[in-house]
Amino acid sequence: MAIARAWSVALFGVDGVVVEIEADIGHGLPGVQLVGLPDAALHEARDRVRAAVRNSDAQWPTTKVTLALSPAALPKGGSGYDLALASAVLAAADAVPAAALRETVLLGELSLDGRLRPVRGVLPGLLGARKAGMRRAVVPVETLEEAGLVAEIEVLGARTLREVLDWLRGEGELRSAPERASGTDQPAGLDLVDVLGQPEARWALEVAAAGGHHLLFTGPPGTGKTMLAQRLCGLLPPLSMDDALEVTAIHSLAGALSTESPLVVSPPFIAPHHSTSVPALIGGGSGVARPGAVSKAHRGVLFVDEAPDWGPHRLDSLRTALEEGEVRLSRRDATVHYPARFQLVLAANPCPCAPARDNDCTCPPSARRRYLGKLSGPLLDRVDLRVRMRPSSAWAYADQGEVDDTATVRARVRQARERAILRWAAHGWRSNADVPGPALRREYRIPRRALNLLERGLDAGAVTARGADRCLRIAWTLCDLDGAETPDAAHIESALGFRDRRAA
């Protein structure tokens, strides 16, 4: 009887957990027994691995083979264990040295002819392997760029099982990961100068970028709602390396990475179709839930176009993510947490017929109320800025002089964000939108004389308590954009203007 060990990684949300794979070759009829809570895809690995070993000029044991995956209580799924299973069996059969597998994580799916195929989640898997003390990883060459983003661990790439076996025997070399780029420069994107007119909406977009606020555009078709939303990411600062790795890990789990340049260095822009289901929006699936659109938009922008067409059920499912910055998904095998700290941009027409001008509307008042009523009060209460777009007119196409481009506005946004970070650094908050209400009312109180207008709004029921907190956050953002020390009455008045319910 012989036994050998190899290591792979199981994904538990965005966390990688190292899995020890033990292969035992004992007495009995030929066969393969796989234990350790494997799913259907992992059960099928027995036949894939056996065929890949035979077609790689290696000998599969002719006796009973038992494969155990530990921790045994952790559900395991997918085809990423194939390479580790084959290596463990051949090490137990003395076809390759077992010592070569120490502190080495093996990831990859095997085809029947021994080719190594890419799998999802390489980046979060290797981050978990590094945390567990692993020193080396072997991955398919297609994911070598992605795996090379993980520092402090040696990453090697292979195309076939035969290459891996030759490397384990000391008879060949594997490809090394390329050098990781030292910076996270933001590539050029869409420019604000392309948007005609709409000075109020442009200003709201700048305020949203400076403070991390959620935004609602309401207006006729063709006024630039989608164009403005698409340009918000260009105003945001580039992702730090830690944020870039976090966002890239989520996109790796979703299978949405580019093989040429996998690192996500710019805030992502996610715009789901209005027919998207709640599981696709929030995350879901059987067994262990996968990330949805809100997690793919982490540290970026989630754009919901034609928001009333989505219906209250899907829109209201965003509320928890907006408030907490993460989603918790419970399925049969596990409860997982996915980060979802994004900026929400909603766009809506003023009514179902969506005329170019309000006086051309043919909808009865009840239809208009019912249409915009699909945007529930609790959801709108979490949207900081509401802007009514101007109808398109000839003056917008005329020469209006110089308008600020994206680079100019981004510079102002960066300065405002730096002021906010300096103010909130001791608390760990990164933008004004992250600051909880109690801190705004106690530690960073605005002078009472500046709050008279807000108090009147609360007394009249024009603003809710949550809405008042959001007005304070907007006021701090306006203060940062002005370079002032503390918000004044003018900032509060402007903040209340952004909360006007008539804009919805």
TrEMBL record:
InterPro entries documented for this protein: AAA+_ATPase (IPR003593), CHLI-like (IPR045006), Mg_chelat-rel (IPR004482), Mg_chelat-rel_C (IPR025158), Mg_chelatse_chII-like_cat_dom (IPR000523), P-loop_NTPase (IPR027417), Ribosomal_Su5_D2-typ_SF (IPR020568), Ribsml_uS5_D2-typ_fold_subgr (IPR014721)
The record's section on Pfam families has: ChlI, Mg_chelatase, Mg_chelatase_C
Write out the GO MF terms.
ATP binding
The protein's matches in SMART domains, at most eight in alphabetical order, are given as: AAA
Task: Using the record's annotation, list all stretches that form the AAA+ ATPase domain.
Answer: 211-393
Residues crossing the lipid bilayer are none
Q: Where is the signal peptide?
A: none
- What top-level branch of life does the organism fall under? Bacteria
Q: NCBIfam families from the entry?
A: YifB family Mg chelatase-like AAA ATPase
Q: Which family does it belong to?
A: Belongs to the Mg-chelatase subunits D/I family. ComM subfamily.
Name of this chain's protein: Magnesium chelatase family protein
